[in-house]
Write a structure and sequence with these properties.
single chain; mainly alpha; 13 helices; 0% strand; DNA-binding transcription factor activity
Length: 254
């Protein structure tokens, strides 16, 4: 058989067969006087075996090792490892499908709704107001959810859990509303100081202490300004956040 005939018989491409030769999975057959590879029945049997093993998910390096082990012991161990990997993948797929089901159930899902199950659970019981402040918060939570160290993320979400209490949610929504009312206000509006103090009081105690430690670190204040400037808030609304952060960093307002 020529390479094209062998490829058609086993259902692979001629390029695949050549690749198997290069990787040492299949030995090169003898060539005819014209320089063509001449394949025998044993080559077809071997190629079929390689195809079956790769379809199971074994790599070519693993297939090469399996074919060199006539006892079958190595194959069994590899198959057990592969089965374990597939079980883990299946579990991960089920988790992803559950998250997709939640997103699909929304009439108009937002890209930031595609957060981790932990953050989704935290936000699950929170009414989603049409608020510039809420949108800024959601952006930052989604960023933290994606970039933070898993242990830090779990700790942060745990510290935020008191905000799900009905009284805290009502207070938070009222704060969002009143900060939204500053959309067209001047940066010297007297409400800014009042709202900054209330905002600090709304933050759970453990979270406030953690933020205070981070904000009081040397060189933090300039970066805080840059952070607030990119939240998409008006100058007066941004002033509330800046003032709250400075009060918190200085140990005041709570």
């Amino acid at each position: 058989m020529r390479i094209g005939e062998l490829a058609a018989l086993i259902g692979v491409s001629t390029r695949t067969i050549r690749h198997y030769h290069q990787q040492g999975v299949m030995p090169e057959p003898e060539r005819t006087s014209g320089g063509y590879r001449e394949y025998q029945l044993r080559d077809a049997v071997l190629l079929a075996r390689v195809r079956r093993l790769t379809e199971l998910g074994l790599s070519l390096a693993e297939v090469r090792d399996v074919l060199a082990d006539s006892s079958g012991t190595e194959l069994r161990e590899m198959l057990k490892e592969l089965d374990h990997d597939l079980a883990c993948q299946q579990e991960a797929i089920e988790v992803r499908r559950a998250r997709l089901a939640v997103l699909i159930s929304k009439e108009t899902p937002h890209p930031d709704d595609a957060v981790s199950p932990e953050l989704a659970e935290l936000l699950g019981g929170v009414p989603l107001p049409d608020s510039a402040m809420f949108r800024a918060d959601r952006k930052m939570l989604a960023l933290m959810d994606t970039t933070a160290d898993p242990a830090l993320k779990r700790q942060t979400l745990k510290m935020m859990s008191p905000l799900r209490e009905p009284e805290a949610m009502a207070r938070g929504i009222d704060l969002y509303r009143r900060i939204d009312e500053l959309a067209d206000a001047d940066v010297d509006d007297p409400r800014i100081e009042e709202l900054a103090v209330e905002l600090i009081g709304h933050i759970p105690q453990e979270m406030a202490e953690s933020l205070r430690g981070n904000l009081s670190a040397p060189g933090t204040h300039p970066s805080v300004g840059d952070f607030v400037a990119e939240m998409g808030l008006s100058p007066a609304q941004s002033a509330v956040i800046r003032r709250a952060m400075h009060l918190l960093a200085d140990g005041r307002g709570r």
